[in-house]
Amino acid sequence: MRNKLLVLLALLFSVLAAPAQPAPTPVAPFNVEVATRHYLDTLTPAQKAKSDAYFEGGYWLQLGAVVYALAVAGVMLGLGLSRLLQALAGHLPRRWLRTWAYAALYLLATFILTLPFTIYEDYVREHQYGLSNLTFGAWAGETLTSLVLSVGLGSLGILVLYAAIRRTGASWWAWATALVGLFLIIGVALGPVFISPLFNKYTALPPGAVRENILRMARANGVPADNVYYFDASRQSKRISANVSGLGSTIRVSLNDNLLRRCSPAEIQAVMGHELGHYVLNHIVKMLVFFVVLLGVGFKLVDWTFRRLVACYGRGWGIAGPADVGGLPLFMALFAVAGLLATPITNTIIRTNEQEADMFGLNAARQPDGFAAIAMKLSEYRKIEPTPLEEFIFFDHPSGRTRVRSAMRWKAEHLADR
Length: 418
Ligand SMILES: [Zn+2]
Fold this sequence. Notes:
By secondary structure, this protein is mainly alpha-helical. It contains 16 helices and four strands. It has helices at residues 2-17, 32-40, 45-77, 81-89, 95-128, 136-168, 172-199, 209-220, 257-262, 265-280, 283-317, 328-341, 343-365, 368-377, 388-394, 400-413; strands at 202-203, 228-231, 242-245, 252-256. Helix 10 (265-280) packs across helix 13 and helix 11 (283-317) crosses helix 12. The protein binds zinc ion. Residues 274, 278, 354, 357 line the site of zinc ion.
């Protein structure tokens, strides 16, 4: 009884002695829309016009690329270039050698025929907008490296695909989907180890406070510090960028030197929070699953169209059926059209992941103003205020406006935390 009384007294004392609850800090009126507008208006009309022109030109380039691809298919099939390449490859003694040689010649010929478009899109236009740092010689060197990779690995992939198509009959499209899915997985897993170092130098992050803050945030979110890399993207362009790549033991977060050089510590922290989001939320695996499913639908639709076209025009084009490697130009043309039609779907899948990474990044980095500032800097190559329909069809990342608004909404809900 006495003990109970003592406890009661102690409790009473502690209540009396406890410091008074601080009054809630008065929250300044903060309007998300006004704050968003404030950021969006930091872009001058001239900067906005340039950004819009660059990005909107990209819509036409996507359409132009498909029209160009159809024209190349026309040269291959209608003008007989494909027959010529088949005749060249036909001198080889074994069928697999003929298939492989035709595939390699086809990829090479397509590259050469598409070169004017590639030079305009990748070199001339990037320089017009002041986005590229490459001299023509350096650009040509990188393009040749890509060509060697695509002819070397692409022709082997095509060889394996045709071997499967010949053996599997009507269900070939399902087997082809599985095989391309497998190639994709191998490519994603090995890309950071064997492909990326051909174009850039990857090293550990330079020492300093920025490095410590990034690694601290990485460790806090379960990302090993060894998996954070730094690369010299300024070789190619001025673009600020970071990414997550690899699969399983090769997964890593990489940030580029432009980001480190051109951005404030708060901005860098905001970008890295976003990238850690991709890593922690397993976005690469989820994307692979989505894309393999989409690929299956694509192969089935392409198979259906291919059979109908070959029934009508196969004789003139020199295509016997799906198992005939001479049908490769038609397959590629149909895939180019299917890819264009699927753009809103693929963009929405990617954009949804990006939005998730944005939310993760805001919570991990707690730098809403840094994130909003970065969203504005990305207007160099992404239209800042598209219409909702434009954003749905053409945007593989949230627009600047969406991102600034997300950041300001997060800020508004966390004002009392400070
Ligand atoms: Zn991202």
